[in-house]
From TrEMBL:
It comes from Spiroplasma poulsonii. This is DDE Tnp4 domain-containing protein. The lineage of its organism: Bacteria, Bacillati, Mycoplasmatota, Mollicutes, Entomoplasmatales. The chain crosses the membrane at residues 79-97. The keyword Membrane applies. It comes from the Bacteria.
Length: 98
């Protein structure tokens, strides 16, 4: 799946090679035995983690719908519509709970 050039990616440290193909990436800095992280790098990692946890929590809520977690057996072109409906249900839930 191609990634649009103006899309910002927030990924974990397992995606170290993605910076070669995509410039707009927020990725935590990895420490090594020879190069421990300095204060700024640790602060940057915390910032990226704070952004990622929000997204991960939303994915966890969306995965409560079996259509997202299990193998999709319907027409492919309708998956986007169904995913948008699930996202709308989530947004309505946010609206009424806050």
């Amino acid at each position: 799946m191609p990634i649009l050039k103006n899309t910002k990616l927030i990924v974990d440290s397992g995606y170290q090679g993605i910076q070669k193909n995509h410039n707009n990436v927020l990725i935590p800095t990895k420490k090594t035995k020879k190069n421990p992280l300095n204060k700024e790098q640790k602060q940057y990692n915390r910032l990226v983690s704070k952004m990622r946890i929000i997204i991960e929590n939303i994915f966890a809520i969306l995965k409560k719908f079996k259509i997202i977690t299990e193998k999709y057996r319907n027409r492919r072109k309708r998956f986007g519509l169904r995913f948008n409906l699930i996202a709308s249900i989530y947004n309505l839930q946010l609206l009424y709970l806050t």
